[in-house]
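Hi there. Long-time user, first ticket. I'm pasting a complex I've been working with (about 229 residues overall). I'd like to know whether the download I got is complete or cut off, because the file seemed smaller than I expected. Thanks.
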Amino acid sequence: LAKTTQPISMDSYEGQEVNITCSHNNIATNDYITWYQQFPSQGPRFIIQGYKTKVTNEVASLFIPADRKSSTLSLPRVSLSDTAVYYCLVGDIWDSGYSTLTFGKGTMLLVSP
Amino acid sequence: GAVVSQHPSRVICKSGTSVKIECRSLDFQATTMFWYRQFPKQSLMLMATSNEGSKATYEQGVEKDKFLINHASLTLSTLTVTSAHPEDSSFYICSANSRPDLMALHFGNGTRLTVT
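Hi, the file is complete. Here it is re-exported in full:
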């Protein structure tokens, strides 16, 4: 199982771009990289997923270098409502339901005015 | 789209009683449903995985006789905490995926269980 390492916490201010990096040195060939956001007392919310290079959607970008041993979630112009815990997951889910996805400790992002 | 509804959102029960938590995929048919437990200020821990019509697969250390999972249909899975004790108090969260993007997990809003 691919283990992930993220900073425990990050601080930012409204309007800034925030980049959260996740290390996953033993990522397997079939593994995907997925990021989730969790607010207190709520279930996580899917943000973005990628395999290699760059992926962008309406809320974030995901940068993955060629060796895939790390990934960076980029949140453009954060607001107070982006204060949450962000989880980087690396793994795969089979059709049978077998999963190698494991939630790490996550990064607590605090956005201040 | 891809909404997962979890009920109840919070429950308080007495020690020794059983509690059932429902997880429904409202607008899609779930391929697999996953059950997690989360203690305060900690990460999510996978408890078990279930596919419709099959027995659930439990993670190591999770007692299958204590945490009964029933996955009767493509849109409903239930977790029953049997003979609950205070140490079972936690935040229980379900998630579901569906084809073609099995990697995108859709989570319910969790159930806060307090055992007194």
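A couple of notes from our side: The radius of gyration of chain A is 14 Å. Chain A touches chain B through 25 residues (CB under 8 Å).
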